[in-house]
Amino acid sequence: MALWKESVKTSATETPEATDLARLGIPETKPAAETPAQPAFRPAPTPTPGKPKAESLIAPDITIEGKIEGEGHVRIAGSFKGDVNVRGDLTIELGARVTGSVRAEKVTIAGELIGNIESAAHVELQQSGALTGDLKAGSLSVAAGSRMRGQAEFGWDDAKDGSSTLKTHGHNGTAS
Fold first, then answer.
1. Exposed site from 42, 129, 147, 156, fewest CB < 10 Å?
2. How far apart are the C-alpha atoms of 61 and 67, rounded to whole Å?
């Protein structure tokens, strides 16, 4: 049984199969004599500064245990147990549950986070969101109806005295 098909020398206009390959963006194979020599190594493209970051999704019916690291945005709609460390945004959807520590540029919580937010530029706790753990962020938005149990430290420059913290006790988005 053969696992390959010998190439037949035809042009794209002679057979419908060749036309379909060209339409699908698959290059037509040319004989070796016509193909220019290419280097064996091609360097990986460097990311452009203005290029938008890709988003990864953990779907609602998925449960994952492990560690998430890297660049790009992460949206969790299912269940994740482990640490999240991304140079991008983390969104915890309504109905999702994350257990572990978090480091991200922006953290949006509509579901439940059990663990500390160790570093974030901005945290948004939405109306349906619940955070059980400590929070360190540049800024914090809290919607009425959200819940938090832990300590929150935000708005402080690391170089300045950051000893003052806001303690919350799960009073539906109110702090005491």
1. 42
2. 18
